[in-house]
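Researcher: For the record, we're logging two predictions in this thread. I'll number them. Prediction 1 follows.
Model: Prediction 1, sequence and structure:
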Amino acid sequence: MFDKLFGWGKKKEEEAPDPDILFGRYSDNNKPLAKVNRWTDADNFFKEKKYPESLDAFFDYMRDDLAKNVVYERNGNQGRFEFYQGSKIVRGSFSPEELKAEVTLARMPQPSVPVMRRLLEMNFNLYYSRFALDTDRLCMRFDSDAETASPSKLYYGLKELATKADKQDDLLVQDFAILETADSEHLTEVPLAEKEVKYQYLQQWIGEVLDLVSGLDADKFSGGIAYQLLTLIYRIDYLITPEGKLLNDLEKISGIYFKKDERPVIEKNRDMAEAFRVIKALSKEEVFKYLHRSKYTFSIVAPQAYKTIADSIHGANQNMIWYRDNGYPQIANQITEYGIGFCQYSYSLPRVITELYHLYMLVNYAPFFKALGFKTTLYDSAQNKFDQEEITERVKTIQNKWKEKYPNLDFKLANLRFDSLVNFNLTYTNEMEFLNMDPK
């Protein structure tokens, strides 16, 4: 009470803030109202053939002021820009006649037929951009006449250029020994202590899931086992936030399950578990290579109507009930996590939903966050004790922060249960399911 009256709690927080660590995939579905309006400005200017003004508004829309991901300069009717996408920087320029952009993928000191064949094959899957060779530099390029450079064309063209380059640079260098990494000096190194914690929990979580599923009847519990393995992908993706090959390996594990074929779930579960054993066998040094900080401009996944997110949460919560009622709370918790974790992994979510999901993860994985240096423990599993006041205050803060954009957002705190983790998870995600996400 005295903390609240005199602000002692706030002062303490200012003296010892939580570490500045970003989690999960970047979502560009997070624009405040003022940014959304800049897209309309860009479109209107383009229709009026005010091309420089259209570009001003477009790159302002693209800029995430918090991430500082876009640099844009204009002098009269010409200028330059650059923006970040993971391990790559896209650099471009514009004039009254055209706009062009390019990104360096790698260095190729000597010509390589296998590399060129790979790039030629990938070119067929590109709509706006193309691979190119500039002396010893492999790159991707995009260009457009000024008169056809509408905001929509620029958005999808630059997104294809940036996201494909960010994915392919690591894979190309990994697959072809002749290639050398290039233009990645902007990446920020993750502190060693953080890497150690993430490696420890990567090992721990994979080990726990593999031990759990190995003790279950592979046929009778095939659905529950699949939930465990898939949720593990999404947890690692969000909390460990790997890049490069390790991220690609996770995507391949997900692809094993969701590939449309006739194989039974039992076989898919077996293959997913084996793929996780391969990751678990990676040395600390190998994992550390894929832990670094990056800035992003585009999400690698697309937004969805909120009903899609609500349906995912609803379906998972319905499926967890049997496990909860039959003495499998650990499986039940993972199934509940799957409902929203799948969406965080697969879709570009509004930031308010990601913030609510992050709070959910803070509760469920308190030891992990404590090991990273976070000060407040929201749930103590040994005592089955929640910091109910702090949890409710954080939900209120999130709601108030996004009230302007989502005026009908109403997370009913009275419906939350704090008697057990499984009941908290169920009631918390139920409230997320029924949120009114109609924007202003």
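Researcher: Logged. Prediction 2.
Model: Prediction 2, sequence and structure:
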Amino acid sequence: MPALTRSYETFERPGLVVSYRISNTRIFKGALVGVNASGFLVPMAHGTAGLRFVGVANESVDNSAGTAGSRSVNITKSGSFLMIPISGLTLTQADIGKVAYANTDWEIQLASAGLTNQYIVGTIVALETSSTGQSAARVRIDNYSV
């Protein structure tokens, strides 16, 4: 196909929040989520093969009794979010700037050891306290969500 010879309307849509069709599962608000090999949204879990990280869920949606694709959920694809370190991991100021790997849909770890599949979900930018009172890492997902 040749190069443009006249204007072409691309119908720009800001990509900060995108709606994805959900698999037959439950997604909770605040979950790290990815699309599976079929293209449907599922919670991130290192034990699930073939995921592509897409962002953080803006809302809770239960489609566990539904058909894959019958419901959608809005996902934020940019910014920073508080995630909990895996049990036994104590984060320190020296961990700022390190990449975070998804262990579950809300737990992160700093090393890929012990992970069945290694999904990087962002960079640690700060240490804070979560809404549940736990020590947490503020993880910036920019450049890691597809």
